[in-house]
Write a structure and sequence with these properties.
The complex is a heterodimer of chains A (483) and B (337). Chain A has 483 residues and is of the alpha/beta class. Chain A contains 17 helices and ten strands. In chain A, the strands form two sheets. In chain A, strands 6-7-8-4-9-10 form a six-stranded mixed sheet, with helices on both faces. In chain A, strands 1-5-2-3 form a four-stranded mixed sheet, with helices on one face. In chain A, helix 15 links the parallel strand 7 and strand 8. Chain A is elongated, with a radius of gyration of 32 Å. Chain B is built from eleven helices and 16 strands. The chains are: A alpha/beta (483), B alpha/beta (337).
Chain lengths: 483, 337
């Protein structure tokens, strides 16, 4: 799996990668092709590099060096074609030789800048031998042609050509032919000499992309205030995790994003909470943070401790499966099934499901939620499942969004200001009750009173009925309790 | 002074009004004479006018001869086919149908086929980039009837190539050339108004008595006739951001206030109306103004038509010079002087 595929699956990841200030198109392509990392060592190596870069970026005395390096990086062109031909022992033409020369000169400049700043994160191979081949006159100008300096014979022919009077077309044509053959021979020699350095050129090209990426990542860490996660093997914990994209959108409206603490043990965790209390955002943000971590990025939180997983499976119900002719229930069940198959196959996944089985009847829905929670807990799968269903008795941890704080409401509540009255933090929850705040929130939003009175009437009747039924059935578990 | 005039500008487009109007001869003439002027000249073209065969008549097209130290831009394909020694200075990231664009400096004199960016905007950026190579003047070989390359947003000045290929009748040929010239030298609106109109890229707008720009809510000139009542609600000055057609000019002429009208267009390349419709509007008293005006340096004439018919060179030059009031040269004749 590459970052490109992850961007398709994880919302908010594109926002993070688009935000990276990459200088060259090559670095962008390289970033998008970067692989999903599975081991703690690989992840730590990446994190360490970024961490080191943030230290450099914080050092004011290095800022002009970094700026100059970025200017050089912006000039890097994608010359993979020419490099491949050099490695392949092909004969290179003037344009290819030009590309390699320009690149080698850039690398020399970048190396020098890195050295002047004592920056050793990304070590570059020395391409001076390449420059020596392509710059026989030692001018260090990023231009190229088959210079006179390559051969006295060539220089002599050129002099002869120049001396010919205009109109001596026949003689000129003969000389031109000779000249072409000679140039070709020289290019052949240059190509074979370059071939011995092709690996170094290739390596430098890789390093140029790496350097570009690590600088961009470092800048992002500082501007977004991301943190370096610790690699853990047990419970994944985020302290004050935030969603950069949502935070930015809220900031534009003059609102504030409330970071929350989340922990994900190697079993199922059920998250309950009233409507509009940010449960989906929590899942999406956790998915984003875990994915960033798996690609060796810092994460949007104040502190984090993350266990590596083989994959992140996020199921939010916004997927576009209707297009394939599936109902929302069918597509959700198929997704859950594929997750279950992976887990059974031994995959170590982070599973995040928003309002599991919400699109079917509550009785069966609750049963499905119970079953999925049991299954995930039994397999020790790190998972967060949100649900509005009460009466969940499966083996799982429970968290609840603190939710609506109505004490300090003055004036009318609207869609625009309701978020100021919600406490988005997660608290541990012991019981199996769920908040019954749907009608209350609707009322606060100013929904028609007659309508809501009627809803409340139904609700009361329903509770009485359920109680009656429950008594009759010898108090079966799973009852809806009003707080 | 023709050459000095060219070298006074950062960029000059050479545009032929038809095939075989002698544009290439004109260009070769200019290059031959700028080579010793002590200034660095760059050369490029727009579109694929550098094909070795004329796409219409299938006759071989002359290559352009460049001289030592001139900078030229051409596609990868034509770069590989060049017949001179040149030093590669840059390769564009942008692709054309003939590959990327190579900027090079001629180390020896020789011939090359020119091919350049396909779009005016790319040509503009390319000319802008020539500063890096210490180029003083960039000469752009404009493709056939690609007047857009002469747009003042692309080049500072232009040279027209006209001749018997366009018409074998001197008065008719002069009128046709004059029409192009009249559009090139359209008067410019006040600079502050030009600045406010320039960002508007579509629709029909009005400028009221106080110089305020007003949206008429008419997305294109094709809908103008249907919104007649709105069209003049703010007065008699209209700004059309896109191209202006024959029909629209006819429509304006037929309005009661035709004599008071001022039509503002972006630059002369946006005027697509025929000669007849254009002049009829002016005759009624209407005015046309532009945001950016252009500069015509000279006209090159080619008295020879592809069918072999030859006009009298002096008579032709004389007619053009009198009618347009700019110098006209027969580039072939000049050479032997």
């Amino acid at each position: 799996m590459t970052l490109t595929t992850a961007i398709e699956e994880i919302k908010g990841l594109r926002f993070m990668t688009d935000n990276l200030e990459l200088q060259s198109g090559w670095a962008k392509r390289m970033l998008h092709a970067s692989p999903y990392l599975h081991t703690a060592e690989e992840i730590n190596r990446e994190l360490e590099k970024t961490e080191e870069m943030t230290r450099i970026l914080r050092d004011a005395s290095l800022s002009s060096v970094i700026d100059r390096i970025c200017l050089k990086l912006a000039q890097v062109k994608d010359i993979r074609g020419s490099i491949a031909r050099a490695r392949d022992s092909q004969n290179l033409d003037d344009l290819e030789l030009f590309e390699i020369k320009v690149f080698a000169l850039l690398v020399a400049d970048i190396r020098q800048l890195l050295e002047s700043g004592g920056i050793r994160i990304v070590p570059f191979p020395d391409l001076e031998p390449v420059i020596a081949i392509l710059d026989p006159e030692g001018m260090r100008i990023p231009h190229f042609y088959v210079y006179d300096a390559y051969s006295p014979e060539l220089s002599a022919i050129r002099k002869k050509m120049k001396a010919l009077a205009e109109g001596a077309e026949k003689e000129l044509e003969a000389l031109r032919h000779e000249h072409t053959l000679l140039e070709d021979r020289i290019r052949e020699q240059l190509s074979s000499r370059l071939h011995t350095h092709a690996e170094a050129i290739q390596e430098a090209f890789q390093k140029v992309g790496e350097l570009d990426i690590v600088i961009a990542k470092g800048k992002q860490v500082l501007s977004m205030r991301l943190c370096r996660p610790r690699v853990s093997q047990g419970t994944t914990r985020f302290k004050k995790i935030f969603n950069p994209q949502v935070r930015e959108a809220l900031a534009k409206e003059g609102k504030r994003f409330q970071p929350v603490d989340v922990s994900i043990a190697p079993k199922a965790t059920l998250i309950s909470g009233a409507n509009m209390t940010g449960k989906s955002v929590i899942l999406k943000t956790v998915a984003l943070a875990q994915t960033l971590f798996q690609f060796g990025f810092h994460v949007p939180a104040e502190e984090a401790e993350i266990a590596p997983v083989d994959g992140v499976r996020l199921c939010t119900g916004d997927e576009q499966d209707e297009l394939q002719g599936l109902s929302s229930y069918a597509s959700e069940m198929l997704r859950v099934n594929s997750i279950a198959q992976e887990v059974k196959g031994g995959a170590n996944l982070l599973v995040l499901v928003d309002e599991l089985a919400r699109t079917t009847n509550p009785n069966e829905g609750r049963a499905i939620v119970n079953a999925v929670l049991d299954f995930l807990s039994a397999h020790g799968t790190r998972s967060l499942i949100t649900s509005h269903y009460g009466g969940i008795e499966a083996d799982c941890l429970r968290m609840r969004v603190r939710g609506f704080v109505s004490e300090n409401v003055t004036g009318r509540l609207t869609i625009d200001n309701i978020n100021e009255h919600i406490d988005y933090s997660l608290v541990e929850d012991s019981g199996d009750t769920v908040p019954q705040e749907a009608i209350r929130i609707a009322r606060l939003l100013g929904v028609d009173n007659d309508l809501l009175d009627s809803a409340e009437h139904y609700l009361e009747e329903n509770i009485t009925n359920t109680r009656g039924q429950a008594k009759a059935e010898n108090a079966a578990p799973g009852e809806i309790t009003n707080k | 002074m023709f050459i000095e005039d060219i070298l006074r500008h950062r960029s000059v487009a050479i545009v032929g009004l038809a095939k075989n109007t002698g544009k290439t001869e004109c260009l070769n003439y200019i290059l031959r004479h700028v080579k010793d002027a002590g200034r660095r000249v760059a050369l490029t073209s727009i579109g694929i006018d550098g094909e070795s065969l004329d796409q219409v008549s299938q006759t071989p097209k002359p290559e352009i001869k460049v001289y030592e130290d001139m900078v030229f831009v051409t596609s990868e394909k034509h770069y590989r086919e060049k017949r001179l020694i040149a030093e590669v200075m840059d390769i564009s990231t942008e692709q054309t149908s003939l590959g990327r664009l190579v900027t090079a400096r001629a180390v020896s004199p020789g011939k090359v086929l020119l091919s350049g960016p396909a779009k005016a905007e790319s040509a503009r950026r390319l000319i802008e980039g020539m500063r890096r190579h210490s180029v003083d003047t960039t000469i752009v070989d404009g493709a056939l009837s690609r007047l857009s390359i002469g747009s003042p947003t692309v080049t500072d000045a232009m040279i027209l190539a006209t001749g018997a290929a366009l018409s074998c009748n001197i008065p008719q040929l002069t009128r046709m050339t004059k029409y192009v010239y009249d559009r090139i030298r359209l008067p410019q609106v006040a600079p502050d108004l030009a600045e406010r109109l320039a960002p508007i890229e579509s629709g029909v707008w009005a400028v009221d008595k106080d110089g305020e720009v007003r949206d008429l809510g008419i997305p294109s000139i094709f809908m103008a006739a249907g919104h007649k009542e709105r069209l003049f609600q703010y007065g008699n000055t209209l700004y059309v951001a896109g191209v202006v057609s024959d029909n629209f000019m006819r429509f304006l002429r037929q309005q009661k206030n035709a004599a008071e009208l001022t039509l503002v267009i972006r630059d002369f390349t946006k005027m697509f109306a025929t000669m007849e419709a254009y002049y009829a509007y002016l005759k009624k008293g209407g005015r046309v103004e532009v945001l950016h005006s252009s500069k015509l340096l000279a006209v090159c004439v080619n008295p020879l038509a592809p069918n072999g018919y030859r006009l009298d060179s002096d008579e032709l030059r004389e007619a053009i010079q009198t009618s347009l009031g700019v110098p006209a040269y027969d580039v072939r004749k000049m050479d032997f002087n």
